[in-house]
Amino acid sequence: MTTEQPPTAKRVPHERVHHGDTVADEYFWLQNRDDPDTVAYLEAENAFTTAATAHLEGLRETLFGEIKSRTKETDLSVPTRKGGYWYYTRTEAGKQYGIHCRVVAAAGQAAPPEIGDGTPLPGEEILLDGNALAGDSEFFALGTFDLSVDGHLLAYSTDFSGDERFTLRIKDLRTGEDLPDVIEDAFYGSAWSADGSTLFYVTIDEAWRPYRVWRHAIGTPAADDVIVHEEADERFWVGVELTRSERFLLIDINSKLTSEVLVIPADSPATTPVPIAPRRQGLEYSVEHHGHRFLILHNDGAEDFALAYTSVDAPGDWITLIEHQPGTRLLQVDAFSGHLVVSLRRDGLTGIRVVPLHGAAPYDIAFPEPLYSVGPEANLEYDTTSFRLHYVSMVTPDSVYDCNLDSGELTLRKQKPVLGDFDASRYEQHREWAIADDGTRVPISVVAKAGTPRDGSAPAVLYGYGSYESSMDPWFSIARLSLLDRGVVFAIAHIRGGGEMGRRWYDEGKVLSKKNTFTDFIACADHLVKAGWSAPERLVARGGSAGGLLMGAVANLAPAAFGGIVAQVPFVDALNTILDPSLPLTVTEWEEWGNPLEDPEVYAYMKSYTPYENLTAAPYPAILAVTSLNDTRVLFHEPAKWVARLRALSPSTDVLLKTEMGAGHGGPSGRYDAWREEAFITAWVLDKVGRA
């Protein structure tokens, strides 16, 4: 640890007044990224973090080398059939980004071509090379990658700063050249008309809300583009997609609680969009096209969702296909000519149900492990009897299977290679259950080196999120092996606010029940200690984004429960952000957190838990906060203010702030840069638990 003194942020008087409550916020000035003092402070924190972790440089290089040596750097994804081609992405050793390719499909070729050693397939056509596009840019991200129905045109978009505002271009794959069409400030997502003459895309407003769907005629200036839908209600986001059947364009309009879907015939792109069902507060639904009907997954009188259909020709009454079953959360339906495939979750695990449409009985696909995650992969063809799925557990690397929908037979197409001496039998995974303060049983997924003693001597990392109904289902990580092999236990707390146990699980961890998220996590930490997996001084908590809010909250509520905390792009100044409707995402977030601007009860409740508001002079565990200057989701000033105030109140706390000066919410964009970032965090964790 460095003997240098950490930076001290200046204090500038500023008051916030709401509902008769006056609060001093002396670090409010850090919100101004154009202030030279702001950048200087962030750079000073980076310099201090570099000095404070200099002793870990050798370990970081070792960890980076372990990740690199276990990863097949030259590799190729399982090709996916679409029309007359097989599409895939490959990587090359030494290159940061993927290369998107296709090969012509042989007549009658049902199975994907063998991918061999990961080098280019015979007859390969490169569609986009991310490395060539990125050039020397410090950051690069691909937003849209969308092929026209005939496979002749490719719409793609690029971001070189991390602010998720993309430049959209169209490439003619017959000539290999970009067309003159260029659209600035596009968002994710696009959709083609049936004949490829028209492209639909989305743009965002000043608050970074996707609110407009546009129609662009290929070969015309962007200035002539037509607004197809503009969403005036600031709670709602819009998106656009083409159905798998390629017969309809769907405009998806969603808030946190309410949905509406508009439909346009793909062969008549200038048609005025028509709603499948009118918007109604609290009604959520999604749409999939299947023959003469639209399939509708909805929560109308169905907390965990049901499946219905309505007529394509005259959308109206909904006729039930799958009844609501409490405790079985229906997540998604994929329609094929002869089958429906329903993704679901039950008892804290994901599942796949196949519904044949020719008289055979529905069936659930069975999997052998007690803990796993399963879900659909890319399934681009409508007229097929093969369904591609992704399967993974905490000890089984990511695996791609093709399921014969008629027989249920699974064919393994690829399992992610793990080089070196990896042997899954050297690790064990377990499902544990913690008891929350109100008696609720909270699932925990645990993975450890086989034979790890349960006497409290092992260090552990407890990961959590718990917001937006997003589930942290079990996953495999090559980088995690460096922890496990050093005797560190890794656990995931499936806390309320997520969706692991159905819609009720989400509802009990939001708005005026949000504190359940934090107390559930603390209960999971206590359970790991009581079960002998670890001890408080050897337990590190980790979370990012809304999971960073979780980290800040538990640091205040139970600092003695953890030996360290990793907070990545953390939402730690939540109340100030949700009070400011001019900031990105604030208005859309009110249905998740409540509206403290208008509701005094919500204001008081958020103030009682938001991390920045509740820092004290008490000792805290060691904290590593990681953020990005160009993040548009959780602005950089939140962790910057949090760290500045924490230092002032508790100067003895070991706290570091690391800011990526050229990245966005997801951190570094290149895979090697991402590995180095993970090695940095892992080294810090190992140092705190005595395994460096």
From TrEMBL:
Matches recorded under Pfam families: Peptidase_S9, Peptidase_S9_N
Domain Peptidase S9A N-terminal stretches: 7-415
Keyword Protease attributed: yes
The Peptidase S9 prolyl oligopeptidase catalytic domain, residue ranges: 475-690
Keyword flag Hydrolase: yes
Domain of life per record: Bacteria
Record's keyword terms, sorted: Hydrolase, Protease, Serine protease
Family: Belongs to the peptidase S9A family.
Annotated protein name in UniProt: S9 family peptidase
